[in-house]
Amino acid sequence: MLLALQGAVSQGILWGVMTLGVYITFKLLDIADMSVDGTLALGGCVCAVAVTGGMDPKLALLLALLAGAAAGGVTGILHAAFDIPSILAGILTMISLWSINLHIMGKSNVPLLAHPTIFSQFAAATGLSQTMATTVIGLVIAVVLVALLYWFFGTEIGAALRATGNNEHMVRALGVDTRMTKLLALMISNGLAGFAGGLVCQSQKYADIGMGTGTIVIGLAAIVIGEVLGQLTPGKLRSFGSRLVAAVVGTVIYFLIRAIVLQMGMDANDMKLLSAIIVAVALSIPVLVGRARTRALWSKGGEV
Amino acid sequence: MLELKHVTKTFNKGTVNEKVALDDISLTLEDGDFVTVIGGNGAGKSTMLNMISGVYPVDRGQIVLDGNDITHLSEPKRARYLGRVFQDPMLGTAADMQIEENLALAARRGQRRGLSWNVTREERELFRERLASLGLGLEDRMGDKVGLLSGGQRQALTLLMATIKQPDVLLLDEHTAALDPKTAKLVLGITERIVGDAHLTTLMVTHNMHDAIRLGNRLIMMDTGRIIYDVRGEEKARLTVPELLQKFEEASGGELDNDRMLLG
Ligand SMILES: Nc1ncnc2c1ncn2[C@@H]1O[C@H](COP(=O)(O)OP(=O)(O)OP(=O)(O)O)[C@@H](O)[C@H]1O
Ligand SMILES: [Mg+2]
Q1: Mutate which of B9, B17, B45 to test ligand 1's pocket (most atoms within 8 Å of Cβ)?
Q2: Which terminus of chain A is more solvent-facing, meaning fewer CB atoms within 10 Å of its CB: N or C?
Q3: In this predicted model, what pLDDT tens digit does every residue of B177-200 receive, in sequence order?
Q4: Do B77 and B120 fall into the same domain?
Q5: ipTM, 2 dp
C-alpha cells in the first residue's frame, strides 16, 4: 500500500505538469481544450521513439515539449484564425493526433527497454530508488515551471494573455490581437501537456497510443481538487502563484485517491467514470449554490 | 485631424434583416475639436464610432487620420491612435485583474508587448498620481481587483485608461448612460477635465441634450445613418434644448425617439 501511494505521488507530480497547461486554457481563457488528450500522448510517443532511437533523454523531453506546442498551435489556428469553436478545434486536433501518434510509433506501444531515462540516470547517480528519483526530479521540474509561469504571467505579454480571458473587447481596444494571445496560450498549454507526456513515458518506460485518453478530465478534476483545497486554507489561495501550486497538488491528490480506490478493489477502468463525476459535480455545485442563494434572497415583496 | 469620407455601412446585406446603419457619412474633426453626438435609437451613432475604431469593416468610403488612411487597419492596429470608453462599464476593464494591472495594460496601448514586467515601479507612481486626480480614493486601492469597484468607479478608471497614453482621438459612446445621475455627473466632470487638460480631439455620444449643448465646441445630430445637423462655436453655445428638438423635427420630419434621452 505504502509503495502504491509513493508511486501515486510521483505520478501525480509528473501529471501535474499537464494540469498547469490545462489551468492556462481552462482558468485563464475559459476554454476546455480537448487537444491535451492528443498532445500528452504525442509527447509520450515522440519521447519513446527518440529515446529508443538513441537520443539523450533530456533532449527527447524538449522534443516532446516542442511537438506538443506545435500541435497546440494547430488548435490555436483552427480556433483563432478560422473561428472554429474551441471545443471542436480541440477535438479535431485530438482525433488527428491519434493517427499521427500511431504513425510516429509505427505500432501502438513502444517500450523503452534498457534505454536510459532522466529518472534512471538520476537514480544511478544518487543511489536513490526509482520512485524517489522520479519524485525528486518531478518536484524540481514542477517548482521551476510554476516559477516560470508566475514570471511569464506578470510580463506584458502574459498580462495581455490573462486579460484576453477576462475581457477580449478591452484587450482589442488596447491594441492586442486576441487571436495571437489565444494561439500563444494554446501552444504553451499543449507544450506543457507534451512535456508531461514525455515525463510519464520515461517514468513508466513505455509509450502507448492510449496514454492520453481522458487527460482533459484528469486535468480538470485536479484543478477542481486544488481549488477545494484552496478554499480550506486560511489565505484561500488568492495569489496567482499559489493557485498554480494548488493545481499541481490537486493532481497529486487525484492520483492518491486513484491509488486508494484501486487498492480498495475498484476496477481501474471505472476511474475515468469517477473522474468525470468529480468534475461534473464540482462544476455544478457553484451553479446550484448560486440558484439557492437567489431563491433565499427572494421575498414576497410588500415590505422591504 | 480625423476625416470620414463617404463612409457607408449596411448590416446583413442581401437578407431580410438588411439595415443601412451609416449612409454616406462625411465628417472632419479638427485637432482639439470636442464634438458631441446626439440622435435617436438606431441612428448609427455607435456604428460610426465602431467604424472609426475598426470593429467592423467599412463597406464604402475612407477613414483618414492625420493624413494616414486607416480604413483597412485591423481593430488592434488602430488602437494606438484611439482611446475608447463604452456604455457598459464592464466592457472597459478586466474584472479579475488589479487596478494597476489594468492601467499598465492601457499604458502600452498600441505598443509592442514584450517580456518585461507589466507593472513597473516608476509607472506605479504615475498611476497613483493620475488615480488621485479622479478624487475617488482609488490611489489607495491599486492592488484591488477591478471587479470590486462600482460601475461609476470602473467607468472613471476606463476613462483614465483610455487617456493614460494620449490618444489622437477619444471616442466616448454614451459612457455615462448606465450610471445613476449623481455618478454620471461625476464621471462627466472627470471627462471634461481630462479632455480639457490635454485638448483631446473627442467624439462623445450622449443621450443628454443638455450635456450635448453644454460640453464641447461642436454638436452633430444623426438620424437614420446620416448627419442631419452640424453646429459649432457661438451658435452651438447659444442653443437651447427646445431649439434642438425643433431642429431635429425640421431636419428629419419626425420626432426624436430615444428611450434613454434626457432633456434636462
Ligand atoms: N452588429 C450589428 N449587426 C446588425 N445590425 C446592427 C449591428 N450593429 C448595429 N446594427 C443596426 O444598425 C443600426 C444603427 O445602430 P447603432 O447601434 O449604431 O445605433 P445608435 O445610434 O448607437 O443607437 P442607440 O441610441 O440605440 O445606441 C441599428 O438599426 C442597429 O440595429
Ligand atoms: Mg449606441
Answers
A1: B45
A2: C
A3: 999 999 999 999 999 999 999 999
A4: no
A5: 0.91
